[in-house]
Amino acid sequence: xxxxxxxxxxxxxxxxxxxxAVKGKLAIQVNLTGKIGGVFYIEILxxxxxxxxxxxxxxxxxxxxxxxxxxxxxxxxxxxxxAIAEGKMKVEGDIDKLLLFxxxxxx
Length: 107
Fold this sequence. Notes:
The chain contains 4 helices and 5 strands, in the order αββββααβα.
């Protein structure tokens, strides 16, 4: 799957969510691991969503995950906590921002 298709999928899924809980900036960089690597970021700035296929220097947190697992997480087929516990996803950075992102994604 090309990164643009993946970023479009993530954008389409998140654009249907209520992003009003985000006051200020929430910036998550996603590092794609596995055979097909890559990077993109998800930014919510005062409730406005951007998903772009670039690194985000001033990010709040980083998620490292394989494309297949990211697809399952975004589609709701894989729980984020389970993905982390099983080592399918690694997270680092501001835990409060990560929890806010998790809440948005799983609603």
